[in-house]
Amino acid sequence: MTKPEQELLLNFLKNHPIYNHWYPIFAVMVGTGLRVGELSGLRWCDIDLDEGIIDINHTLVYYDHRDENSKTGCYFNVHTPKTEAGKRQVPMLEFVKEAFLMEREYQQLIGLVCKVTIDGYTDFIFLNRDGGTFYQGSLNKTIRRIIRDCNDEVLQKGEENPVLLPHFSCHSLRHTFTTRMCEAGVNIKVMQDTLGHADISTTLNIYADVTKELKKSEFEGLDSYFATA
User: Fold this and answer.
1) pTM of the predicted model, to two decimals?
2) How do the residues of the chain divide into helix, strand and coil, expressed in percent and rounded to 5?
3) pLDDT, tens digit, for every residue of 198-224?
4) Helix or strand or coil: residue 156?
5) How far apart are CA 199 and CA 197, in angstroms?
6) Residue 63 is inside which H or E element, if any?
7) Rounded to 5 degrees, what are φ and ψ at 89?
8) Nearest Cα to 36, choosing from 133, 152, 145?
9) Which of 137, 115, 140, 145 has the alpha carbon at shortest distance from 127?
């Protein structure tokens, strides 16, 4: 997602009377690059708003248990990170901290509280209307509605060459955060640690893909400059 597309998404969510309660969860996705299970598994005790730190120490997994004895259907489990790299602390950008505060205020306003305990874990931050947790499928379904309604709103304005939201998923927002870090020149080791990659080659491959696109766009601008020089 480009920076204008990212800004369109966040501004739409923050200011829309129907979708504004979705702003915090998607803002945190965009501003942290957390995996969906890491985000949905966050508890209030995992974040330090004073220090601006998010502690990643587990992930929430939703899957089908029907192949296991005496277990039926799809439900959540808590998994600890498979590698030490998965356990990490992610600094909060200012708008991410704001999003957590907005979520807390919203829940207090409507009386929403966590009603689930999963493998001994409870007090999750991001809750559905029933006080339960989110899984990737439900969030991606919400994203499709957001794309549709946001783009309809933009097109109704009749602007020439408008910025529109592309089709994207929760995982796309992780890649979007990585792209912003590349654009800002964040150190590759810092990127690896923030994203929780066990192997730096994973980070390097993403970095190479992103910088390739950045170089292409920069040279398109250079081509225009030479044509008018």
Assistant:
1) 0.88
2) 55, 10, 35
3) 888 988 888 888 887 777 777 776 777
4) helix
5) 5
6) strand 59-64
7) -120, 130
8) 133
9) 115
